[in-house]
Write a structure and sequence with these properties.
Keywords: Lyase. It comes from Pseudoxanthomonas suwonensis (strain 11-1). There is one protein chain. The protein has 25 helices and 14 strands. Strands 7-8-12-11-10-9-13-14 form an 8-stranded mixed sheet. Strands 4-1-5-6 form a 4-stranded parallel sheet, with helices on both faces. Strand 9 (468-478), helix 20 and strand 10 (501-504) form a beta-alpha-beta unit. The chain is an alpha/beta fold. It has helices at 3-10, 34-39, 42-53, 95-107, 122-125, 134-150, 167-176, 206-211, 217-226, 240-250, 266-285, 295-308, 314-324, 332-341, 358-363, 366-376, 392-400, 403-416, 427-432, 481-489, 509-512, 518-526, 598-607, 622-633, 645-664; strands spanning 64-70, 75-76, 82-84, 110-116, 157-162, 183-187, 439-440, 450-454, 468-478, 501-504, 535-537, 549-554, 571-577, 582-587. It is globular.
């Protein structure tokens, strides 16, 4: 290696010539008195020293502190250009929201603090072992965020700024677990659609479409480059990221009309400023988040979720948020009741039929516009408080007659030529447009503990005239997503064909950390024959997934679930009634001419061993294995994949006692 190259790595010492060994301390004096010195914890005093050391004006360092917790990722120069990339657009420019909120706190007599716990990108990790960390990250991040909040003992309130699939759920869990404090969520917004380009959902299928000759290399390369119309914000569809924003607002812990704001736009920055003011007002009034995040708020969120036709991943997150707040978690019966009472009112990607991007949902009125319809249907609790300082009913009364509503809806007409009434509809218009309730929870001999499907996402052309989806087909069993996507992309021998039922087993928490399987569902959506191939898995789906895809099948294969006993060629019968919101998934034998009853077939399954290929993935991280064990002891996926400390401690004690008894009896 040449000397100059070696110097570039090891250094030549020139930087030492300008290096100091002491410095001037900050000017001024701490704003303290005799009582403070005698009575305050040393940590409070040293905290003021640190505040001065970081350069804040000494005369102001005893102001009321407000903590901003964000999921900021990457590093941007002053002009917005990348210095170091983040993992996704959702956390890429929320430093601007942090700055706007901090300046608002400071301008109104507060002392702003900012900490960060960034988040992963589910889109980036699709089809990779990085997906094994996706869901476990949520619990870890929530714990870290709560530890950061507690590490500023004098904080008056917490402002949580986040978006995307795991960052925002983690933030909501964190704030819910700090319910003794005032708290406000600032949703990080959405990416603008790019003119003449594919959206960020469709563009994730360029590999599968190219493999089947549906697009050429030039198209794939061009569309893959152009999908994002702005450098920040969550994806443009109503997936988990956008649905989480909707839920934050529906719970009353984010300001009205804050969910789905276009990242980087003036209304987005204004929302951060107003959220900071709202938090200061809550702190002055002594209103903790626990006064807002109540059981009635959760019930409102379930109804709003149904009206939006939101992501099935919220079945994991809403119960977890409720548990973190010390509330009873909603059950499958609660979700079903909400969906039976509530028609889908929102036409957005990926549900259709017109597939509006999320920014158009925002401009059509967003969450408060949907809640106006739900109010008129008598489906909301209107008397409960929100972080605006007003009740839900008062917020809606303001929105209905506001200038903001008029401007937003008119802007949508002017810029995009879109009628807001075609994006967010009343119940009669929604029914006329063919929108139906979203979630169904099928049971059967393959899912004794239940499963879930977004029934609205099934292609209407494969649904019978009575609005019931029926499919009986041969199972194609895969123990890894890699093998399944290879068979979907393949042609000829071994390829998945129309009529098959793709079964992906062993991919629940114990197998892969309950990975998302958007690779499969997105590929099938954009292949001409894909609508004739349902997917059945103990894993989960991206919020943008469409088609007859049934996930969260319980018990998972590695916990003895019957799905793990299926074999290639087995007959699987699926029935999803989109009227009654009931469904079933059953193994019915191997002979089409003489199908078994579900009970007879269940006995056959019980006599079989687990499929020989099903095992925990060899690259499953040890910390994900630990997460899987802890959440299973706490109620599992249908309990929200939470950590129930009491249940875990009880299990550990019982295990230690059993081990002690075995050792005393002479066991190993």
């Amino acid at each position: 290696m040449q000397a100059d190259a070696l110097d570039a790595i090891l250094g030549d010492g020139t930087a030492l010539a300008a290096t100091r060994t002491s410095g001037e301390g900050p000017p001024g004096r701490l704003p303290i008195d005799d009582a403070t010195l005698r009575q305050a914890p040393s940590g409070h005093l040293f905290g003021m020293t640190q505040n001065a050391g970081m350069g804040w004006r000494a005369s102001e360092i005893a102001r009321d502190p407000y903590l901003i917790v964000s999921t900021q990722g990457g590093l941007r120069a002053g002009d917005g250009q990348p210095v170091a990339l983040g993992l996704h657009t959702g956390h890429w420019e929320i430093d601007r929201l942090v700055r706007a909120a901090a300046e608002t706190f400071a301008g109104h007599g507060g002392l702003p603090f900012s900490v960060m716990c960034s988040d992963p990108c589910d889109g980036r990790t699709q089809g990779t072992t990085g997906m094994f960390d996706s869901l476990p990250y949520r619990n870890d991040a929530a714990m870290t965020m709560r530890r950061l909040v507690r590490s500023l003992p004098t904080r008056r309130g917490v402002l949580g700024i986040a978006t995307c699939d795991k960052g925002l759920p983690a933030m909501m869990l964190a704030l819910a677990g700090c319910g003794d404090l005032p708290g406000v969520i600032v949703p990080g917004g959405v990416t603008l659609p790019a003119r003449g380009a594919e959206d960020t959902a469709k563009v994730q299928t360029i590999g599968a479409r190219y493999a089947h000759g549906l697009i050429d290399l030039e198209h794939a390369a061009a569309m893959g480059c152009r999908a994002c119309g702005s450098p920040g914000g969550g994806c443009q569809f109503l997936g988990t990221a956008a649905t989480s924003q909707v839920i934050a607002e529906a719970l009353g812990i984010a300001l009205p009309h804050s969910a789905l704001a276009p990242s980087g736009e003036p209304v987005w920055l204004d929302m951060a400023r107003r959220s900071a003011l709202a938090l200061m007002r809550l702190a002055q009034a002594g209103t903790p988040l626990s006064a807002i995040l109540t059981r009635k708020a959760v019930e409102n969120a379930l109804v709003v979720h149904a009206a939006f036709g939101g992501s099935t991943n919220l079945l994991l997150h809403v119960p977890a948020i409720a548990r973190a707040a010390g509330l009873t978690a909603p059950t499958v019966a609660d979700w079903t009741a909400a969906n039976r009472a509530t028609p889908r009112l929102v036409d957005a990607l990926p549900n259709g039929p017109r597939h509006h991007p999320t920014v158009q949902v925002f401009m059509a009125g967003g969450v408060p516009e949907v809640m106006l319809h739900l109010r008129d249907m008598g489906l909301l609790h209107l008397d409960i408080p929100t972080v605006s300082g007003r009740t839900v009913g008062e917020n809606l009364e303001w929105w209905e007659h506001s200038q903001a509503r008029r401007i937003a809806r008119q802007r949508l007409r002017e810029l995009d030529g879109v009628d807001p009434g075609n994006v967010i509809m009343g119940p009669d218009a929604a029914r006329a447009a063919g929108l139906t309730s979203a979630l169904v929870f099928p049971v059967g001999n393959l899912a004794p503990d239940g499963s879930v499907i977004k029934a609205t996402s099934i292609d209407p052309s494969v649904v019978d005239a009575d609005n019931v989806y029926r499919h009986t087909g041969r199972a194609r069993v895969f123990a890894s997503e890699h093998e399944a996507i290879a068979a979907i992309k393949a042609k000829g021998e071994g390829a998945v064909v129309a009529g098959d039922v793709v079964v992906l087993a062993g991919c629940g928490p114990a197998g892969t950390g309950m990975e998302e399987t958007y690779q499969l569902t997105s590929a099938l959506k954009y292949l001409p024959w894909g609508k004739h191939v349902p997917v059945l898995t103990d894993a989960r789906f991206s919020g943008v997934s469409t088609g007859a895809c049934i996930g969260h099948v319980g018990p998972e294969a590695l916990a003895g679930g019957p799905i793990g006993r299926l074999r290639d060629g087995d007959l699987v019968r699926i029935v999803i009634d989109r009227n009654t919101l009931q469904g079933s998934i059953d193994f019915i034998g191997t002979d089409e001419a003489n199908p078994l009853s579900p009970e007879e077939a269940a006995a056959v399954l019980a006599s079989r061993p687990v499929h020989p290929a099903i095992a925990p993935h060899p690259k499953l991280p040890a910390d994900t294995r630990l997460w899987a064990a802890l959440q299973e002891a706490s109620g599992g996926t249908w309990g929200g994949c939470v950590y129930d400390v009491d249940a875990i401690v009880e299990t550990l004690r019982a295990g230690r006692a059993a081990l002690a008894q075995r050792r005393a009896a002479g066991g190993d």
